[in-house]
Amino acid sequence: MTGVFSKNGVSLERLQSLERVVRAGSIALAAKGDPIAQSLISRQLGELEKVMGFELLDRSKKPYQPTPAAQRLAESCARFVREVEEAAMEAQGEHRPIAVGAGEVVIRQLIIPWIGRNRRGLAAHSWSLLNLTGRKIQDGLESERLDIGIATGLEVTTNVEVVDLESYGIKLVLPEHQKPDKTGWSCLMDLPLVVLEGDGKFRRFLADCEREYGVKFKIGAVCTSYPQAVDLAEATGSAVFVPEYWWRRHKEWAARTQVLPGQEKLRRTLQLAWNRKVAERRSEVAALIAALKKR
Fold first, then answer.
1. Is 272 helix (H, G, I), strand (E, B) or coil?
2. Confidence (pTM)
3. pLDDT, position 50
4. What's the CATH number for 95-167+270-293?
5. Beta strands 160-168; 218-223: pairing state
């Protein structure tokens, strides 16, 4: 398709409306409950569809969902806008904030302390630290909404590069009133357990342990981050699993840590990932990647 911007119906404003719909998931969510905005966005997308010659919304679903073509178009629009903004800021001697996606514990225990230790060399930079799941980090790197991501299970793709940072295990911390013993997994028979939401690999590991060791776990609560899980476990007298790199920073947890057979199977690898094109385009991001590799 050539000369698309010369036709009525295509404009940066309409493309940005499409990008907001794709990011939100639907027109209603993009409009944030404003019926006037919802009507405007619907009209803009209809005009785009007419001039583009293909559907941007799957109208067989309620609410209407963005099509794969719409997602690709939205990503291209967002990338174009970011690059224009970067060029304008650089021309004025400024830089866009470095956007880093990671889990809450990684941000609090690894990234923020690292920034603090290197603040002199990083004084000229501003930051956007985003608490995100691994899936959203992967998506953010692909679409260039993120510059750098740190998580487990990240994938090398055409756009994304990934390197391993460190391997870590998971520790079971008991409530204050309970001391660790030699019963292994049996200590959880009558003890509520706080776990993370959406961690399929960990849930499968627990299910395997139930079958192998003849125990039945009681899931007392589900949280979206490790700090939430620890706070809730402390408040309710529950047990909680925490990543080893955080556990090492809390010496008081050692006396409450239960040794479990087979827990070495749950070792994971913390990874550093970035978008190759962003690193090539932004020297400050490339420098940060090189520094984090050496941390």
1. strand
2. 0.71
3. 84
4. 3.40.190.10
5. unpaired
